[in-house]
Fold this protein.
Amino acid sequence: MSKKIKNMLSILFAAVLTVSAFCVSVNAADDDLTINISSDEKDAVTAKVGDTVKYAVYMTDTKEEVIGVAMSFFYNDEYLKMDADSIKCESFNNSVGNPNLKNYYTFTWTDVQNPVKLNGDKALVSAEFKVTKGGKTDLSYFISDMYGDDMTYLKSYKITCKLWVNGEEVKKDVVPIVNDDTANKEKIQGDFVNYVDGMGEDNSPNKNDHKSVVVEKKYISTQQNTQVVDVTKVVESSTGNNSGSTTTIIIIVAIVVVLLAAGAIIFVKKRDEKNGKTAGNNSEKDATKEDK
């Protein structure tokens, strides 16, 4: 075999190996799913199609016990298929949830007689997912309501999350993503204020820049704590006043209608009585004339 032919075969063989390696690399990339559980990209986790992923949200540093909660977590079923049987609310026994919602799970719990002290040993909520497609997706949460034993929302807390891949813990103590988009779409904002840093207004070290996420009916507001609280109060107060004013007007109109109806009835009755008396008097006069 000539040297020229050997060189051509070597080049061809190298090209085949390069193409094969590229195809393997592309296929491997197609099987990789990047899962964001935090706004910080360094906390992103990579899983492969077929892997089992577990997501859990925790709350610690509370100063009071909890008597009621309404909470949701969010996922994209294009990439993650949730195992409904795996859902657990370890901190809240006998909670009621709906696993049939599109791309999110929501649950509620309340027990005034048996308040719960939250800690890092038991998750607020957790679930397992099967990776079905490569790409990029998020896991996130939103708390609509959470009341302490004084019947007001909690002001001191720390929210974190954990992630497991095939049973191995790969991330812990991560500040989870607050999902404002889906929360806005589903209109699940309650009295609880979700903060970007996952901490309450009383214990957050970010006093001068404590950003909160408050979802209103037709817009999302991410502002400073004091501004959001004021806006929320104004909206609630305004709504209440409009409702109260409408109710008052309806009551006043109803009273006026009743009074007018009563007045009309009295007027007609008096008129009939007067006519009756007049007719009676005329009859008596006619009878007297006949007697004479």
